[in-house]
Design a protein that fits this description.
By secondary structure, the chain is mainly beta. The chain has two helices and ten strands, in the order E-E-E-E-E-E-H-E-H-E-E-E. It starts with a strand and ends with a strand.
Length: 183
């Protein structure tokens, strides 16, 4: 039976967010404990909370918004690699175990056909980047960006990825529940 790895970071009160971004909050609209017929929760969060897909509109005014991200890029064969193994990666979906280090634009340009590029960092670019060179390099290639993965329990290797964004019309990103299926 194949093994399923949940590679999403938990979304919970106190979860890390980009400095200055909206923190995750949850509340209850109705509670059975208070006499309601059902429990109904509500959440407030940034579109970049936890594991998420960046749409091109996030970093380019002319970029597409998240509801038109090609879903076929978000499902299919993927490889998990370390930064040291990135140069040899030959897959349409690459998930980088960068350990907090972002790839360079030159490293991205040397990759083959690429439908999706994911990272265990909060961003494909360095935290202090003002130009977002990696975001733009991936956009020029038509590559979907997946950020904030938890790859800590996943060995390097080949998997099937499922990481579908919510259909948030007109938005720059969407949280996802990302899983890898492997042997």
């Amino acid at each position: 039976m194949p093994k399923i790895y949940d590679v999403s970071v938990p979304v919970a009160p106190g979860a890390w967010v980009w400095p200055g971004d909206r923190v995750y909050e949850r509340a209850w609209t109705w509670r059975i404990a208070d006499g309601a017929t059902c429990n109904v929760g509500q959440i407030t969060l940034s579109c970049h909370t936890g594991t998420h897909i960046d749409a091109p509109y996030h970093f380019a005014e002319s970029g597409a918004t998240v509801e038109v991200v090609p879903l076929e890029a978000c499902v299919g064969p993927a490889v998990v690699v370390s930064l040291a193994g990135l140069a040899g990666a030959r897959a349409e979906r690459i998930l980088l175990r960068g350990g907090g280090v972002a790839p360079t634009a030159a490293q991205i340009e040397r990759l083959g056909d690429l439908k999706l590029f994911g990272t265990d960092a909060p961003s494909v670019d360095a935290m202090d980047s003002k130009t977002l060179d990696i975001h733009h390099a991936l956009w020029r290639r038509g590559t979907v960006i997946l950020e904030g993965l938890d790859l800590s329990a996943v060995p390097d290797g080949d998997y099937q990825l499922i990481a579908l964004p919510l259909k948030l019309a007109g938005m720059d990103a969407s949280p996802v529940r990302a899983i890898l299926i492997g042997a």
